Amino acid sequence: MNNSTPAKGIHKKYFYHNNGIEKKTFKGDRSPRPSRVLHLCQIPSDATEAEVISLGIPFGRVTNFLMLKGKSQALLEMASEEAAVTMMNYYTPTTPHLRSQPVYIQYSNHRELKTDNLPNQSRSQAALQAVNAMQAGNLTVTSALGADGGLCPGSVLRMIVENLFYPVTLEVLFQIFSKFGSVLKIITFTKNNQFQALLQYADPMNAYYAKMALDGQSIYTGCCTLRIDFSRLANLKVRYNNDKSRDFTRHDLPSGDGHPALEPPIAAAFGTQNIIFPSYAGAAGFAPAMGFAQGTGLPVPAVPVALGSLAVPTSAASGQMTVTGVAGIPGNSVLLVSNLNPEVITPHGLFILFGVYGDVHRVKIMFKKKENALVQMADAAQALLAISHLNGQRLYGRVLHATFSKHRTVQLPREGEEDHGLTKDYSHSPLHRFKKPGSKNFRNIFPPSDTLHLSNIPTSVTVDEMKKLFANTGSTVKAFRFFQKDYKMALIRLGSVEEALQALIELHNHDLGEKHHLRISFSKSTI
User: Fold this and answer.
1) Global pTM exceeds 0.70
2) Which partner from 184, 399, 409, 433 sits 20 to 30 angstroms from 447, CA to CA?
3) How far apart are CA 53 and CA 93, in angstroms?
4) pLDDT digits (tens, 9 = 90+) for 490-518
C-alpha cells in the first residue's frame, strides 16, 4: 500500500489475470512498479461501480474494471501506464473519498486485467460502458444502470452544511461548485435549524462529479462539512437575485422586498479563514503547482486537463479543500491580470479570452508595466468565473495570473491624454456572449481544453481549409470533425491547451466569407 494507507502487515490481494484468479500476498510497505492496472481498497460497501470507475475517468480512458464488493476492493485498468502514473501521482498526496470514506490506491503486480471468463461481471462492465459513454458526452446510455447505478440522476444538487462554525454564503458555494462546471442557479435557506442549499448545473455530469468530489468534504478546516445528494427537482425557479438566491443566467431579476441586492462579500468570506481558490490545468495537459494555501503551507497538486471541472483537491490530512488565495473587494468586477507576455498580448486579445467567461466592458494594459493589465467584467459573478477558469493557464509562453484588483472600475484616458491604445472600452461590443438573459451560452461554459467548439461555419468551407486556418496560428492540428447533423459546427483538437487559448484569441470572430464570422468556445468533449 502507499505510505498514506493505515493498514499494516500482510494483505491478501486478488488479481484476475489470464485464466482466472490469482491470490497474492505482499507486505504492506512493498510498492509494486508502475502498471496501468490499479488496485483500490477500503471501498465503502454502499459505493456503486460508477463511483469507483469515476475516480479514474479524469485521467484518461478506463479500459477494464472489476469490483470485489465482498472484499471492499476493485481493480481498475487504464488505457496507458502514463494515465495510471498520473492518477497515482495525483491521489498520493490527496487521498480520494467515496461516501465520505478514504479509498487507497496502489499499482497492481500485473500488466493487464482480463475478466472475459469471470462470472457475475455484467454489472461492472455495464457500469464501465455507461461511465465511458458519459465521458464521451453521450448521456443516453446512463439508463443502463438506472437510479441504482448512481449515474447522473439530475443537474440539481441538494446540500446540507453540518457543523456551521463559520458563515457559508451563496458566493462561497458558487466559488467552490463552479470548479465542476457552469453553475446556473443557487438557492440557500435554513430548514430544521440547518443551513441548506439547492444548486443547479447546466449539465447533469457536472452535478455528478461535484457530488463525487465534495460530498463529505469540509469547506473550512474541521467545520462546515458538505453533505450532498441529488434533488428530485429538475429545475430551480429563482424569483430574486440577492444574498439568498441567484439565477446567473438572469441579470434582470429584482432583489426582492426586504432582501439586499447581491453584493458578493468576498473579502469577508475569505478573511482570515482558510478557503482558497482552485485553478484549472495549464499547457500540455498539466497545471503548474498553484502555490500554497493561505496560512497552511499545503501545496495544491497539479491536475490533468481532463480533470478540469473536478479540480478541488483536498488535503489527505485534513479533508479540507485547498485552493489558491484570492484577496478581493466585495462586489468587485475588476480583475488584475499579471505575468502577461508584453510582446504579444493586446487589449483585444484579453477581451476575447476573458469574454469566454463573461462580458468584458473595459481592458487596460499598464503603460509602465505591460506585463500587467486590468480587465473589467460585467459583474462580480463573471469575474469569479473568469478567475476560476483562467488563473494559472499558460498563454504565450507565460503562466497567467488573475485575481481581484483593488480598483473598482477601469478609468478611460482623459481627453487629450496619450494612451498608446492600451485602454479600450468594450461595453457596447456586439461580441458579448452573455448580454441576453437566459442565453444558451450560459449552459456552454467549460474550462480551457485542447479541444475547441467551432460554429457559424459556411457550408462551402472544407476540412482542409479549416485545418490550414488554425495551422497558420502556429497550432498543431491533431484532429478535426464536422458535426454530422450540422455542418456549420465542428470540433478541432490542437496540440495543447496553450495552443487552443492562443487560437481562440486570434481566430474568434474571424471572417470566413459569405457573411459568416467564426465563433469559438472551449468544448466539453474531445475527438
Assistant:
1) no
2) 409
3) 20
4) 999 999 999 999 999 999 999 998 889 99
